[in-house]
Amino acid sequence: MQYQATNSTSIAEIPADCLVVPVWKDGGLGDTSETLAGALGGALSAIVGSDDYTWETTDDQQLLHDPAGCAAERVLLVGAGERGKLGRREAAKFLGEALKTVLSRNMPHVHFAVEDLAVNDIGIDWLAARLAQEAETAAYRYVATKTDTKRKAVLERLSIRATKENLRDVMLQGKAVGQGVNRARELGNLPANICTPTHLANHARELANNHPAIDVEVIDEARMKELGMGCFLSVTAGSIEAAYLIVLHYRGADEDDKPVCLVGKGVTFDSGGISIKPSAAMDEMKFDMCGAAAVLGTMSAIAELKMPVNVVGLVAASENMPSDRATKPGDIVTSMSGKTVEILNTDAEGRLLLCDALTYAERFEPTYVIDIATLTGAAIAAFGNEANVVMGNDQPLMDRLLQCGHDCLDRAWQLPLWTEYQKQLDSNFADVANIGGKRAGSITAGCFLSRFTEKFKWAHLDIAGSAWLSDGAAKGATGRPVALLTEFLSTVAQARH
Ligand code: BES
Ligand code: ZN
Ligand code: MN
């Protein structure tokens, strides 16, 4: 997709295939759209003034063909609701729904009158970036394993009015985020027989080849053994696929700037192991590497943005399978930290990968460590698909993540890691058990991780609910929380320069 900020003086003179115009609930128009209404000599005003539409939601749309008085071929009117109530969420919905219409039709060049949405606390920069981000994600189609790839979207070019300098650069920032989100979605959507730990390692190598600021190092099982990663290795024990800890370095700041570490759970298929899962919806466990996908998507986005920050991405990639060599309930292993772990349930495998990856992260002396994991079904029970669940040991870090999530609409909500919950992890036979009781499952998973994060400021994002949707046509990976992580890293970069 190409992005343009045009200097054209009047919207009526833009020779696009379609102009997208927001209409407020009372039929009112923004300044730019008013000029267009003037140029069209009554045709537009007649529609918005009629009682045929409420313009309350984006479902209210009208497409005018060949309107006399403007250079564009079409004008698409879209309901924007009440002017006073337009917030970022509503604006993003407007852009996404308008793009859906545009993508379903034959319009290579579409111009958006986004400046008319710059009301309340919504700025033009945010709108320009968001338009590009929404355009990238709206145009995404999963085709990798389909022979009937359907009609490709014809949308090629999106323009907005250059109401200030560098607005195109701002659009390109949104584009980078959208492409990072799509990268995560694609990796998530690929089936487990294609998206193996080896595939993730190759994908990381490809990222490093395409971006000079990214280096990659792949730690194999032999090396993990030397490092003492008994927990990590216990997860891959039953699988025929090789497991890897993939280490990506993005160097965007000074060499001595300490990095942020992102640690992603990359279970490419979670059968549960010997504590095997029931078969209903087990296919969805191909999505159990969405934390890893988010790390890779974020690394690509920040590299594309040339963000001035140092980031180490750790991708803990393994299958979780039953076999005669698989870890058994009751087995005790020693983590890289030296703590022993009683594996009471082999389906609580994500935390076993993560605990060793977190210990490995210590060597980078990170300013912050954020792990991202589809860790617990309990997170879905509590929040459905809406929230990234955040926990951690540093309240300012969590406040910042909550704020970033709010700003970029990839929202998070915090759960407590009170010491009272830690007791659930007591074991008679090891330093810690890998599961708690029946209750507070997301929290006890967080508690387990907290035992391995004493040396740095740490936040845990449980994305079991946010990372994919399960139903119907929408079934698939969402690419969350790439937007949140990219937003967070941009605040880290800003704070430094
Ligand atoms: N990958 C799952 C978590 C999960 C389950 C995500 C369902 C999305 C949907 C994780 O490895 C897991 O199996 N967790 C167990 C932990 C339990 C055994 C303590 C869970 O949540 O049931
Ligand atoms: Zn899992
Ligand atoms: Mn599991």
Describe it.
With about 500 residues, the protein is of the alpha/beta class. It is built from 15 helices and 19 strands. α3 (about 90-105) packs across α4 (about 125-140), α5 packs antiparallel against α9 (about 290-305) and α9 (about 290-305) crosses α15. It is elongated, with a radius of gyration of 24 Å. About 55% of the residues are buried. The protein binds ligand BES, zinc ion and manganese (II) ion. Manganese (II) ion (MN) binds near residues 270, 272, 347 and 349.
Secondary-structure topology with pairs:
Blueprint: E1 2-6, E2 18-24, H1 31-39, H2 43-49, E3 61-65, E4 74-81, H3 88-103, E5 109-112, H4 124-139, E6 157-161, H5 167-189, H6 197-210, E7 214-219, H7 221-227, H8 230-236, E8 244-251, E9 260-270, H9 290-304, E10 310-320, E11 331-334, E12 340-343, H10 350-361, E13 368-373, H11 377-383, E14 388-392, H12 395-408, E15 412-414, H13 419-422, E16 432-433, H14 441-450, E17 458-462, E18 468-469, E19 476-477, H15 482-496
Parallel strand pairs: 1-6, 2-4, 2-5, 5-6, 9-10, 9-13, 12-16, 13-17, 14-15
Antiparallel strand pairs: 3-4, 7-8, 8-10, 11-12, 14-17, 18-19
Helix pairs in contact: 3-4, 4-5, 5-9, 6-9, 8-10, 9-15, 12-15
